[in-house]
């Protein structure tokens, strides 16, 4: 089952902040965040692991609420280059050696001058 | 330069024909994945492989087949049984770290398949 991302779309002025969310109905081991520009491949931003370890991008932060199985990505002082579609991918607990990511439908974020 | 390549970038095929999409990586990653992307649907997993000569079905495997004869290569065949094959196909690879969850996915540039 795909994680649910919200809101569906975000429009910002340069310099504004945004928060985008990812929610799962299953117990999660990790949450990944990727950004995709139109017609290009998704690019890795962040991994959040169960237990609080966070690895990823310098200018973007994120949180992982293990109790609620939710993750939020925080974009501060947005730049034009932040525009794109943001996907979360979730890794569920208990899948063992056959772990895989299940991606949400994505959130389109547009930053305007 | 290490990376992951897909070819061709655009592919046109007639309905009823099988077609094979290429995916090669020189990152020495154990795991490789195929995703399908349709507008508004996100990335849906077709097949994945964590070791040579072994692979698992993803969420939408029907009408597709794969092979993993070499660590570097994971070709995807879209068969005539796939009802709606027109889509953007993305290949990805990652390292495996079983005690720390899946590592980041590196994606190829994608192949846009159009079936006429």
Descriptive key words:
heterodimer, A: mainly beta, Immunoglobulin-like, 7-stranded mixed beta sheet, 4-stranded antiparallel beta sheet, 55% strand, globular, B: 116 residues, mainly beta
Label the structural class of chain B.
mainly beta
How many structurally independent domains of chain A?
A: 1
Reading off the top of the CATH hierarchy, the class of chain A is best stated as: Mainly Beta
Instruction: Tell me the number of strands of chain A.
Output: 11
Assembly state (oligomeric): heterodimer
Radius of gyration of chain B over all CA atoms, rounded: 14 Å
Biggest beta-sheet profile of chain A: 7 strands, mixed
The share of residues in helices of chain B is under 10%
Q: Which structural class fits the helix and strand makeup of chain A?
A: mainly beta
What is the CATH homologous superfamily assignment of chain A? Immunoglobulins
Regions with little confidence, pLDDT below 50 for 5+ residues of chain B: none
Overall 3D geometry of chain B? globular
Number of helices of chain A: 0
Spatial gap, N to C terminus of chain B? 36 Å
* Overall geometry of chain A: globular
Instruction: Detail the poorly predicted runs of chain A.
Output: none
Rounded to the nearest angstrom, the distance between the terminal CA atoms of chain A is 37 Å
């Amino acid at each position: 089952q795909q994680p649910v991302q919200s809101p569906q779309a975000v429009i910002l002025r340069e310099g504004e902040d945004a928060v985008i969310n990812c929610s799962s109905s299953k117990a999660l081991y990790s949450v990944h965040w990727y950004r995709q520009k139109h017609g290009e491949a998704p690019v890795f931003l962040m991994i959040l692991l169960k237990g609080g370890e966070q690895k990823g991008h310098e200018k973007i932060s994120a949180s992982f609420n293990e109790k609620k199985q939710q993750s939020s990505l925080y974009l501060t002082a947005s730049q034009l280059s932040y525009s794109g579609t943001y996907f979360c991918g979730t890794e569920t607990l208990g899948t063992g050696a056959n772990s895989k990511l299940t991606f949400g439908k994505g959130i389109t974020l547009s930053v305007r001058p | 330069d290490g990376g992951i390549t897909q070819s061709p970038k655009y592919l046109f095929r007639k309905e009823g024909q099988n077609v094979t999409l290429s995916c090669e990586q020189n990152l020495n990653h154990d795991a490789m994945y195929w995703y399908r992307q349709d507008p508004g649907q996100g990335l849906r997993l077709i097949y994945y492989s964590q070791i040579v000569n072994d692979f698992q079905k993803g969420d939408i495997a029907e009408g597709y087949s794969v092979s993993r004869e070499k660590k570097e290569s994971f070709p995807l065949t879209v068969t005539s049984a796939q009802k709606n094959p027109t889509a953007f196909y993305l290949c990805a690879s990652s390292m495996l770290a079983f005690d720390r969850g899946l590592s980041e996915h590196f994606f190829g540039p994608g192949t846009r398949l159009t079936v006429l």
